[in-house]
Amino acid sequence: MTMTMTEREQDNEQFQSYDWANRTMAVEGTVSPTTHQSRMARVYDKYFSTGFYHLRYPDANKHTLHFILSELQKLELGPKHILDFGCGNGRYLLPILKNTKNRFTAYDICETPLKLLSERLDIEDSRERVSIIHGGLEQLARHMGVKGKADLILLMFGVLSHVGDRDTRLQLLRRLRTFLDNDSSRIILSVPNRLRRFTRMNGCVSPAGKESGDITYRRSYKGTELTFFYHLYTPKTLAAELREAGLVVHRMCAESFFPECWVTGSPVVGVLDQAICRILPPKRGYGILAVVGPDKTSGE
User: Fold this and answer.
1) How far apart are CA 280 and CA 235, in angstroms?
2) Domains and CATH numbers, the chain
């Protein structure tokens, strides 16, 4: 589904740096991680319920999907258990499910996209290989304890960047590491590239004790305004944060060259983008895509 000009005009994206004295989104020391999570869940429920998310991202990014499938082939033979953390409406889960015999745990803090995913699974008669989990990390942990740990964890399209402050992100990464089955298991994640995204805001630096790279931005659609928190990365800061969480990067590349909504909304742009990404260094990508695993030398 390609956006019409009218729809693109309605997709009125506005950017703002933090008003550090009167912040409305979660930042360390201002709003608890639980409150931040609840706010982001409400925002994304609206994003999906209005149809705006599907309008912007109707399909999987073909380059990213191929990347995931190629990494799956490197794992040992046999069906795998994949945890799609922040799965949304299954933009990546569904095509992987269709092309493999793997089983999934689909986890999200937002109820609306999980309902959309459930409807798709019923239509495609694929529910038996997918467990849908909604709620907090403790619910997910209990499920993983029963169903078994994951051979692969997906943390796609900026999920990590929405989590909140650095301490909260590190806690999440360390928790996800405990969900991995063994040292050969992997996490595939993608984050926005600070060198390419929201460049008008790159001069915004947080005050002492706060982290540079934290921003809020707004999207408006048919009278509904959505405000998002995002943490922007560079390849270097991403690798450093992963290392601190006891994870090591095995492979890193550009997620796309063009904006994701262009890539997923136009087959022609998607094919062109896939070709460009074969030679594009990570620092030139619109997003950064990485494969990481447990750091065997880490004391974590």
Assistant:
1) 13
2) 5-293 (3.40.50.150)
pLDDT along the chain (300 residues), means of 10: 39 36 36 80 94 95 95 83 96 94 95 95 87 94 94 95 92 96 94 84 44 85 90 95 97 96 95 96 96 82
For residue 227, give every residue at least 6 positions away whose Cβ sits within 8 Å of its Cβ, in sequence order, or none. 24, 25, 43, 216, 217, 218
Q: Residue 171 belongs to what H/E stretch?
A: helix 166-179
Distance from the first to the final alpha carbon of the chain: 45
Decide: 52 and 89 in contact? Cβ < 8 Å.
no
Find out whether 196 and 161 touch, Cβ atoms under 8 Å.
no
Each residue's pLDDT tens digit, 140-186: 999 999 999 999 999 999 999 999 889 999 999 999 999 999 899 99
Closest CA to 278 of 261, 260, 258, 256: 256
Residues 56-74: b if buried by 16+ CB within 10 A, e if exposed: bbebbbbbbbebbeeebee
Residue (of 144, 160, 179) closest to 86 by Cα position: 160
Write down the residue that tokens 């890193």 correspond to.
Answer: 252
Angle at which helix 111-124 crosses helix 33-49, to 10 degrees, equals 50
Q: What is the per-residue pLDDT across 206-216, written as a single tens digit (0 to 9) for each?
A: 433 367 888 88
Residue type, 200: R
Q: What is the pTM of this model?
A: 0.87
HSE-up of residue 146 (Cα within 13 Å, Cβ side)? 8
**What does the alpha-carbon distance between residue 235 and residue 135 come to, in Å, rounded to a whole number?**
31
Give bridge partners of residue 150 from the DSSP assignment: 180
